[in-house]
């Protein structure tokens, strides 16, 4: 049994390494999303202190110049609360270096600062190869909304079809035309909900977000694209997170 388990792990690592190398040679960025899960206010305070005073400064010293840190918008009553930390990576070696240095918290906590850390590695899409900081938002930073979406598919074929819909199908171009201020679009190459893609858009306010999605839903190009037979049934589940940037975020 242990031999079979080891073979499975080695196979997964091999496929992961192939995906990472392919991303490096394509010119597309690797993106890292770390999700810190916590339950209590005291844990949130400890996490904020750690991220602001230790992790982000360490990441900046490790040549990660732009790090986004996000929380759910006000009145987060969920039992499982989250802080999302998003960053670009140079390559697989950079990820390894960060794992050895930046992600080793040596603080001696008297209480546990989080319940779990989730690591998600993504490869940026062909038509959105780099992480972008929103350039079209207003100066009122406290009102900005960041929307993170995860689209899961029932099979690898359906997943590839949804990625194609974003790229060749024109969904990315549609978002750009309608001013969604995208931060990234990426295929998850290591995560807990595969096969899935994730993307993040940004808005001036919650009202601005609602107006954008209303326009999107009524757009003639979207109605045509979403009705094409080749793009049906390619998403089996979606998660939507409405977020705000923390005070220490680079966004």
From TrEMBL:
Domain NIPSNAP residues, every copy: 146-249
Pfam families: NIPSNAP (PF07978)
Domain of life per record: Bacteria
Matching InterPro entries: Dimeric_a/b-barrel, NIPSNAP
Protein name: NIPSNAP domain-containing protein
């Amino acid at each position: 049994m242990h031999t079979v388990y080891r073979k499975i792990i080695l196979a997964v690592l091999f496929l992961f390494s192939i995906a990472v190398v392919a991303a490096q040679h394509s010119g597309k960025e690797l993106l890292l999303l770390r999700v810190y899960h916590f339950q209590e206010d005291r844990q949130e305070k400890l996490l904020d202190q750690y991220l602001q005073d230790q992790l982000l400064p360490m990441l900046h010293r490790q040549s990660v110049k732009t790090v986004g840190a996000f929380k759910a918008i006000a009145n987060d009553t969920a039992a499982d609360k989250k802080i999302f930390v998003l960053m670009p990576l140079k390559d697989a070696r950079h990820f390894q270096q960060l794992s050895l240095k930046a992600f080793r918290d040596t603080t001696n906590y008297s209480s546990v600062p989080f319940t779990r850390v989730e690591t998600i590695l993504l490869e940026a899409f062909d038509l959105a190869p780099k992480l972008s900081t929103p350039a079209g938002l207003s100066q009122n930073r406290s009102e900005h909304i960041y929307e993170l979406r995860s689209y899961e598919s029932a099979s690898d074929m359906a997943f590839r079809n949804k990625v194609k819909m974003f790229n060749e199908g024109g969904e990315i171009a549609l978002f750009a035309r309608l001013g969604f201020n995208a931060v990234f679009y990426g295929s998850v190459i290591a995560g807990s909900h595969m096969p899935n893609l994730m993307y993040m858009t940004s808005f001036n306010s919650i009202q601005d977000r609602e107006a954008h999605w209303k326009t999107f839903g009524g757009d003639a190009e979207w109605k045509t694209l979403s009705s094409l037979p080749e793009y049906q049934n390619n998403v089996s589940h979606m998660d939507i997170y409405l977020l705000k940037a923390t005070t220490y975020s680079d966004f």
